[in-house]
Amino acid sequence: MGITNTLVKGGNMENKELIKRLKNRDEDALYVVIEVYGKVLKGVISKTLWKYPSLWDEAMNDALLSIWQNIDHFDPQKSSFKNWCAAVSKYKAIDLLRRESKFKNVILDENSMTNDPDFHSNLEIEEILSALDDEDKKLFENIFIRGLSYGEAASEQYISTENAYQKVSRARKFLRRWRGENI
């Protein structure tokens, strides 16, 4: 509670000090974000992921990590810190929702049943991705199946985010041509 009291003046958060501490990678500042804005983040996440309460903790962790990693992108001229944090949590929740709703039944293993209604679409996804080289296939899987952002997928493959965008663009063009030839 003492940490928060040093950042609260007259009931208003001194965001400049908090943001400065976050930029300086002060872990205590992240605890302040949780204490002061945690209810707002949780509210946005639970409203977005109301159908998937099991994802709430993951979304909260993703949002906090994103706030921590992207604090340099916060622009007080565009929005308040509270609204920026809420937007970050909203986007992370949407990413998880997209991943969950699109690929809920995409997992194939030895026990998959052939009468599964998604089985044929899963096989089609495998067939389409098999047309890509291993690096592009992994990038596609990370972004479009696992639901990682371009930056996260690029980081996992030790390439720049710009390079990831270019690879996906080239792969999409290739797949459009490939599907046209194989349909």
Automatic annotation (TrEMBL):
**Which GO molecular function entries does the Swiss-Prot or TrEMBL record give?**
DNA binding; sigma factor activity
Cite the entry's keywords alphabetically. DNA-binding, Sigma factor, Transcription, Transcription regulation
Q: One Pfam annotation, family name?
A: Sigma70_r2
Presence of the UniProt keyword Transcription in the record? yes
Picking any one GO biological process from the record gives:
DNA-templated transcription initiation
The organism's superkingdom is given as Bacteria
Start and end residues of each RNA polymerase sigma-70 region domain: 50-102
User: What Gene3D superfamilies does the entry give?
Assistant: 1.10.1740.10, Winged helix-like DNA-binding domain superfamily/Winged helix DNA-binding domain
Family, similarity comment: Belongs to the sigma-70 factor family. ECF subfamily.
Name of the protein described by the UniProt record: Sigma-70 region 2
This chain's source organism reads Aedoeadaptatus coxii
